[in-house]
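Loading example: each entry is read as two labelled lines plus one structure line.
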Amino acid sequence: MKYLFLTAFLLTGMGMVCAQNNDSLVIRKIADEILTNGQAYNNLRILCKQIGPRLSGSAQAARAVDFTFRKMKEMGADTVFLQECMVPHWVRGKKEEARILYPNGTNRSLKVCALGNSVGTPEKGLTASVIEVRSFAELEELGAEKIRGHIVFFNYRMNPLFVNTFRAYGDAYQYRGSGPAIAAKFGAIGVMIRSLASNDDDHPHTGTTEYVDSIRKIPAIALSTNDADILSRELKKRIAIRVFFKTNCRMLADVKSYNVVGELKGTEFPNEIVTVGGHLDSWDLAEGAHDDGAGCVQSMEIISTFKALAIQPRRTIRVVMFMNEENGSRGGDKYAEIARTAEDKKFIFALESDAGGFTPRGFGFTASTSQKARIWEWKKLFEPYGICEFYDGGDGADIEPLGKMGTALAGLVPDSQRYFDVHHAETDVLEAVSVRELKLGAINMAALIYLASEYGMN
Amino acid sequence: MKYLFLTAFLLTGMGMVCAQNNDSLVIRKIADEILTNGQAYNNLRILCKQIGPRLSGSAQAARAVDFTFRKMKEMGADTVFLQECMVPHWVRGKKEEARILYPNGTNRSLKVCALGNSVGTPEKGLTASVIEVRSFAELEELGAEKIRGHIVFFNYRMNPLFVNTFRAYGDAYQYRGSGPAIAAKFGAIGVMIRSLASNDDDHPHTGTTEYVDSIRKIPAIALSTNDADILSRELKKRIAIRVFFKTNCRMLADVKSYNVVGELKGTEFPNEIVTVGGHLDSWDLAEGAHDDGAGCVQSMEIISTFKALAIQPRRTIRVVMFMNEENGSRGGDKYAEIARTAEDKKFIFALESDAGGFTPRGFGFTASTSQKARIWEWKKLFEPYGICEFYDGGDGADIEPLGKMGTALAGLVPDSQRYFDVHHAETDVLEAVSVRELKLGAINMAALIYLASEYGMN
């Protein structure tokens, strides 16, 4: 590309009604401020590089609480406060080992990581032959006699045919979420899954597995997608290979942690609360840049931007750094629990950014028909900033409990193509985030929060 | 993000008319084929890693011609042929040097590259004091007396306020394109420009400058954005610094090169030609992954996909690897020249992908009102694949000469946020391209070419 001038991108919107004209001017100011002076990327650098991985219960999670508390004060929030909650404290321990053991005594090492919340292996590890399946139906067909005493390998590839990769993740999630519990029911002694990843590489992707209380908890690991292919190929050769793996993870007692809440007080309806946030915890393998440092720094950007532009919201805005989304959701639950008992306050709207810091494409909304009709009228205001769709349905894991109280919910919908390349893997680092893409998300979030705080949700 | 299921992404389109239903099925097959078996990324790997930088006239450009010729044959094109054209042969020579020279005898080296098509410095380099300006108006105000004998430094930052970065590029382009010629008019002996880049880093970005025949050609280099900031800061200190730079580039005699054209013959209207392409040449500093290896491999993907699905187009499809877009546009000119003299053929439509291999957001169209009305009816067919807008106005540098003959033109519009981070710099490498994003572009291009070849442009 040498030179190309696309006249098509001239901002349109001449036909808008008067209120929208004023809103579009405010939103343009918000965009200009963030594009010129935005600090989201610098704050993300601190979360990623100075603090690092922030799994619930870790020292880094505590440092992230301190940092965002201090930062939101410094930005000029009217109040910053903590909401205490007890969180699970899972630790990975020493790095995992895994090897294919060949009958001739040689071995081949595999790139793996323990699944979040999983139990560790015995001290000497697990050694067993491996049964590969691609579905629960295959497992069932094999039955307990064939599975008992073996390691089950769920080699289910994220379906590339879903254009939106979140659908492919939703489809494949069952094997990570329930695979270990279901395989244990059939007598398996361990589980390996193909990483939930949209690309082929050497990085295993972690994420929680969900044991069932009545079923024995067995150790569970994820293989990198490349190594899942290698193991599958070796198994097809029908030589008597076994696999050894050793994990050193365990669940410790719950520890005290916090949501961090920064507030801009509403001038007219201070008891109507507009919530916006991301989750502060991240997996221990990664810097948690896209998941979900991005959502945190984009949300905080609303405070600094509104202060810089002297925007005084009519309703109270709460910027929330939720704790423990990844392996317990205790922060989200706590926020809703406190909201439920605050009878003088009405939690009218909540927005979460937890789908990566990529170029935004839209918002999804879970709200009443009349609320949605109103919200859809705003859509034109977002088009100059890359939003092309308002989707029916959308939220975030941390705000979902608020939804049950009747709060209207929204989720930022960024481009999804690269998210599951890095999600829950050591490749989710600052360098995988584009400054401008991150800013565009922050602009659209700030614009939506502006409108929600200005007009409410009646 | 632990788990999120967005029902909003279920494919819609139930209400479409019958022809569109059939078209939507064909397009779904195209998408499935590319998402499952697409070879675009593998072909891009060969262009980037095995062949490498492919500036017009270079041995690598010749190898790229051979590779794409062979590849399109292998894919099953009915015919593959070359269109000979003479191209400029500019060579960079030995790596450039540049330094700030301090009065105390120390120096600081600067990261620079010569602008494309620029003349080299004398053997001993240029040493002079530097006059920094931010606009041509400032230059004019200073006037020839103050500029004569100095190096002019155009420190114009790409305007971050343009949401679409191509607009910022269009706005800043003048300093690279015309800066050296205009500064020479005022007696400058050399020009430095701030790289046309949307990010702050240490990589200079090249690209053509356009001399004017009647004005002395002076050497011109681009500084990395970081070094432009450093130089500007040093100049503000008002100590008597000078700058030394030495470039070793020169323009050699034109050499013979080629467009490569792969054809799928139309079954019903073989003389109506639908053209699709990208440019095969790239700057010598970079692998040319986004610019424009992506456009080339996406275009070739149409041949392999149509063959795999046994789609026989009603009109003839020509997949064109244009030569010399970067520093001469001779390939595009030659293609149009041959088209003009082929009186039995009608070049009805041409699509170019030359804005990066990022997630597609839309297409821009330059066509008659009635053609556009027809094209806009297709828009719904593209929405499941990430297209959110059809823009009025759009083309590509290589197909523009066809447009002058009345051919309807289109340009793929990918997300623009990251393009100018890497454009014309050594960071434009395969690793900067996402497999899925590249494929989505190819899918939408193949769909558009399918529709154009099926329905024509009447």
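Chain B has 14 helices and 17 strands.
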